Amino acid sequence: MVLKVTTLCIPAGGSGEPDPSREASAPVRVSWQGCSASSGPRPAPSTASWPTPCSSLWGGRRRWTTSTTASSTATRSGSGRATAARRSTSTASTPSSITCGTEMPRGWAGGVRGGVPLSPLPASLLCRRFVHSRNRAALSYTLALNHLADRTPQELAALRGRRRTVPAGVCMGTGSILHRSVKRVPIPLSPGAVTPVKDQAVCGSCWSFATTGAMEGALFLKTGVLTPLSQQVLIDCSWGFGNYACDGGEEWRAYEWIKKHGGIASTESYGPYLGQDPGATSASPFLPQNGYCHCNQSELVAQLAGYASVEPGSATALKAALVKHGPVAVNIDASHKSFAFYANGVYEEPRCGESTLDHAVLAVGYGVLHGKSYWLIKNSWSTYWGNDGYILMAMKDNNCGVATAASFPILA
Fold first, then answer.
1. What CATH number is given to the structural domain containing 264?
2. Can you tell me the distance from the alpha carbon of 28 to that of 26, in angstroms, rounded to the nearest whole number?
3. Ranges of Low complexity compositional bias (predicted)?
4. Does residue 303 fall inside a structural domain?
5. How would residue 163 be classed by pLDDT, with cut points 50, 70 and 90?
6. How far apart are CA 333 and CA 247, in angstroms?
7. For the CA atoms of the chain, what is the radius of gyration?
8. Range of weakest confidence among 57-66, 123-132, 219-228
9. HSE on the CB side for 3, CA within 13 Å?
10. What is the distance between the alpha carbons of residues 130 and 123, in angstroms, rounded to a whole number?
11. What are the residue numbers of the active site?
12. Which of 104, 131, 235, 291 is the most buried (most CB within 10 A)?
C-alpha cells in the first residue's frame, strides 16, 4: 500500500509561501531526501523522467535533473588507489570481440578481425553506442555516458564492494520487521536526514557509505542534527570484524564494530575520506595517519543498541522501515552496464538477480512515477553518476533485490 503524503514545496529564492500548484500535480512519493524546486519552468511530462521534486519527507534542498539526452563523457572524478583487481588488469593483447566495458588498455578499443588489426577507437565510443541503443528501445529509464565510461570490468567490479557472506553464529540484529500496514505508522515530516552524495572513488567501500548513511538518518531522528559520519574509520578499523576496506565488506559487520566501540566518529573528528586501504601511501602529508586506524583520537557519537534486518523480499516491510526508522541500508545487483550508465527514469533490468547482490546503497524513499512503483536510492559514485547520484529502482518483483537484504541501526 503506497503512503500518500502531502508536502508543499517552497521555490528556491521564493517568498517562503508554499506553492499548491506544484503539489497538486506531483506524483505520490515518500522520501527522506527532501523537497526542492527548480528555478526554471517545469518540464512537460513527455520530456521529464523524474517526478516534480515535491512530496518529500526528509533531506536538504536540491535540484533534480530532468534531461533525458545522453551527455558527453564527463571528466573522471574521485581519487584513491586501485584495488587488487585493478592492479591485475592485463594489457598484453587485444581481444577479438570488443564491447563497452571490455578489459582494454585505457583509451583503446581496437580489435582484430581476420588477423588484421582494427582501427583504435575510444572506449567511450562503444559505450555511447550501447547507451544510444538502449535509449532507442523506449524503456522506462534512460542512459547517458558518465565518468565510468572508460573503466574496465575489473575496475567497475571494484566499486561493488558488498561481500557475499552469511553471518556465522551471529544474530542478524535485534529482530526483523514483519508485514505491517504503512497507514498505521506515524509519518515524520521534518526534513534533513540525508547528507550530500559522496564519491567512494576506486575503492570497494560501498558498504561503509550504506552503513554511515543509515546511521546519519537514525542520529538525525534522535537529535535533530544532521552529522556527517566517517566512512574512513570503518575502512581503517573494522578489519577484525571481517570487513576488508577497499576489497569489500558488509553493513552488519560495521554495525558490530560500532556497537562494540561505543559509537562512530564524525568526518570532522576522524578526518576526510581517503578512498584507500589502511597504510596506503597518501599523496598529501596533511591527511591524518595515512589511513591507519586512529579512532581512539576521535570523539565517537551515535551509540548503537543494535540493528535490525527487514523481512527479506517484503516491499511492505521496507516501506514501513523507511517511514518509521528513516534511511535504510540495502544491497542490490548492480553488475549490469545499464546500471553503470543510468541517467533517469525508473530503472528496471530484467537480468537483475534477487540474490546475487554485489553493491551496498541507501534507500531513502519510495513512490510512483508514470504508473511504476519505485525505490529512491542514494548511491556513492558521485553526483556525476545517475541523477545527481540518485536512482529510481523498480519495486516490481523485487527487481535487483532491493528488498532482499535491508537493515537499519537502532541507537541507544
1. 3.90.70.10
2. 6
3. 65-97
4. yes
5. low
6. 17
7. 21
8. 57-66
9. 30
10. 11
11. 206, 359, 379
12. 235
